[in-house]
Amino acid sequence: MGAFDPASFGACFADPPYSSGGNVRDKAQATSAKYQSAEHRGLYPEFQGDTRDQRSYLAWSTLWLGRARELIAPGGLVGVFSDWRQLPVTTDALQCGGWVWRGIVPWDKTESCRPQLGRYRNQAEYVVWGSNGARRLTGRVAPGVMRHSVPRVKHHIAGKPVELMAGLLSVAEGPILDPFMGSATIAVACLRLGLPYVGIEVDPTYFEIACKRMEEARDEAA
After folding, report:
1. Inter-axis angle of helices 87-96 and 54-70, nearest 10
2. Given strand 100-108, what is the order of strands in its sheet?
């Protein structure tokens, strides 16, 4: 992110690796084992950066969120995905990075998500959101809960629905900064909404997947 000028983006939306798991052994598992049922393993490439314990996850998140804030215009939005385990530290990291924490948007994945016998479904993930300082009370209003099922056809182990991203971005100003591009779901949503977009991805395999997906999305929109 050091290549960009200060305040050159309108918002930052990010779906970082959660590093989720109840203990060290869980965190060290392959991402397909952590986030997919057995019948779906091997369909998508593994992804990097998902083995941090919660203390290092907080420190790492604070670092990238602080750097990202420097690139966002005053009043610009931030949205960071999290599961229930990392939700408390994500709200801390957002504030440690200098953002004003303004709330949480639950993503209701519907009853189509993986069941756990004898337990409540892990049916929700969360978007911790805030702003770079004060934000004017103008513009559109977006839903406070987003209900979208997990896509049956995905491009990433932890892929999100494009419609979910489009709903989140409906109140944001561009250009959009995406520090964890993955399979370019946020990019496709930006293309649909006409928002300028810049994505960053360290994994060469997923970078190729993202570029191909964006080309296909542009062709469909033409």
Report:
1. 40
2. 146-147, 100-108, 124-131, 72-82, 9-14, 176-178, 197-199
Residue 59's Cα: distance from chain center in Å? 18
| Token pair of 12 as six digits | 């930052």
CA distances to 29, 84, 98, 186, 199 from 62, rounded to whole Å, are: 24, 18, 9, 22, 19
Between CA 69 and CA 81 the distance in angstroms is: 16
Which amino acid makes up residue 163?
A: E
Q: Are 142 and 162 in contact (CB under 8 A)?
A: no
Q: Are 183 and 61 in contact (CB under 8 A)?
A: no
3.40.50.300, 1.10.472.10, 3.90.1150.10, 3.40.50.150: CATH of 9-221: 3.40.50.150
* Model confidence pLDDT, tens digit, residues 157-199: 878 999 999 999 999 999 999 999 999 999 999 999 999 999 9
Digit-coded pLDDT (tens) for 41-71: 556 566 567 789 999 999 999 999 999 999 9
